[in-house]
Structure formats: structure tokens, C-alpha cells
Amino acid sequence: MARVALVTGGMGGLGEAVCIKLAALGYKVVTTYSPGNKKADSWLSQMKEQGYDFKAYPCDVSDYDSAQACIAQVQQEVGPIDVLVNNAGITRDMTFKKMDKPNWDAVMKTNLDSVFNMTKPVCDGMVERGWGRIINISSVNGQKGAFGQTNYSAAKAGMHGFSKALAYEVARKGVTVNTISPGYIGTKMVMDIPSEVLETKIIPQIPMGRLGKPEEVAGLVAYLSSEEAAFVTGANIAINGGQHMQ
Ligand code: CAA
């Protein structure tokens, strides 16, 4: 029977590429979207036209109760979740001088609390079934820090601390927990950076001299989701055009 993969924030640039890749490999793919997202239906029909029959559920990943309710519904309607990709995330970039509590909290809740909220209701089931893959999409900026991202860098670094600790706890149960740290990928999140900053401050720091492609990250998610990746756990895999060498 096909394994079930749940990808949070699957309607964004990176998430969509992950959904498409996992579906092409035979996973039954479910995604979540922010309850306010008015484009959810049109995204689903667009995907259907391309031959992808995804299921999508509204879920505020930053809210514990919303996450529990969403996962319960998915498990009832689709089946137990075998692969969880914690991909949903936001930025609220500003220098620390300008950083206020609401913009700190929003990023911590959406990018880090969400990992707890979504993993909590699926992890025990994975352990009981003796198979599971939890993949946390972090960022190069959780590894090296970034100008204007004290909130985001803290949350993204925290994701990997979570991955390592949980990976330890479930290492003998057939469940792997890993972090992927993409660099600058050509998605809306990155294209929203002021173009002057992107061109003069960021791209020159990438040894390959270009942005990454969502499909390149999706390929790594597919690998970590696979049987072959059973011995990889607690890892933080960089995919950033060589930026970690800077
Ligand atoms: N490195 C060094 N200096 C920088 C800088 C950088 N990356 N970005 C800005 N500065 C400098 C500017 O040159 C400027 O210097 P001067 O005062 O000497 O002229 C000073 O900082 C203030 O810059 P701004 O006028 O831009 O200040 P602002 O308050 O209007 O904006 C900012 C600050 C919001 C941080 C803006 O610079 C910005 O958006 N930067 C990009 C942040 C970024 O990299 N975000 C990543 C988003 S993508 C992502 O997060 C995905 C992922 O995982 C990789």
C-alpha cells in the first residue's frame, strides 16, 4: 500500500515541488494550507490538471489545537502518516533594533512551535508501526545567521536541535528525524528580498553564483523519505550552492 506523506505549507514554492516529487514516487500526498489561503481550491485544481490528486487540509501549524485536529482528520480520512515534512514557514525580516515582540513570536510560533505541534500527533504512531520519516526544512540561515533574521535564524537553528534530540529517542524504532538546510532557493520568500540586497549582498556569497531550484531540495526530501535513507538520522544536510563554505 502507498505510504502517506504529509507536507506542511505544500502550496508554496518549495512545498509544491516536494508534493510533486513524492507523488511521482508513489506516495499518497497530503498537504496543509493556512486557513486564510483563498487560493487553495485553485491550486488543487491546477495540480489536478497536471495529474496530481493531492488532498489538502486547512491547518494553522502554529496552533497546537488546530494541528491536532488536522492530523486526526487526515489519519481518519487518508490513513496513518508515514512521512512528515515540516516545511511551512514565514519570514518577518528586520534588524534587531526594529524587532518587536509580535514579529519575534510570529516567526517562533510558525517556524518552530509548528514542528512540535505537527510531530507530536504522528510520532507515536510511527514508532508503533516501526517505520517513519520526519524531515524538518530549516535554512542555511539557521546555521550561519543572517542580517535581519534574529527571529528566523533562532527558529531554524532550534529545528535542528529538535531533530537531533528526537532522532536519538526513536533511533531504534525505525523512525528517522533529519533536518534539511536549504540556502537561497528561487521561491517567493527569496524573491521578496529587496532586489538590491539580493544582488549585491546575497548572491555574491553563493559560490555557485545562482539561486537553488525547488526541485533540487525536493530530490533531497525524496531521498530522506526513502528506504535507502534508513541509516541517516539526526543529520542536518546543507543544500545551498556551497554557501556553507563561506
Ligand atoms: N549584510 C550586510 N549589511 C546589510 C545586509 C546584509 N545582508 N542587508 C542590509 N545591510 C545593510 C545595508 O547596506 C544598510 O547599510 P547602511 O546603513 O550602511 O547603508 C543597513 O544594513 C540597513 O539596510 P536597510 O536599509 O535594508 O534596512 P532596512 O531596515 O530597511 O531593512 C532588512 C533591513 C529587512 C534586513 C533588509 O535589508 C532585508 O530584507 N535583508 C534581507 C534579509 C534576508 O536575507 N532574508 C532572507 C529571506 S529568504 C529566507 O529566509 C529563505 C532562507 O531560508 C535562505
UniProtKB/TrEMBL annotation:
It comes from the Bacteria. One of its GO terms (molecular function) is acetoacetyl-CoA reductase activity. InterPro entries: Acetoacetyl-CoA_reductase, KR_dom, NAD(P)-bd_dom_sf, Sc_DH/Rdtase_CS, SDR, SDR_fam. Its EC number is 1.1.1.36. Residues 3-183 form the Ketoreductase domain. Keywords: Oxidoreductase. Pfam families: adh_short. Belongs to the short-chain dehydrogenases/reductases (SDR) family. This is Acetoacetyl-CoA reductase. It comes from Massilia phyllostachyos.
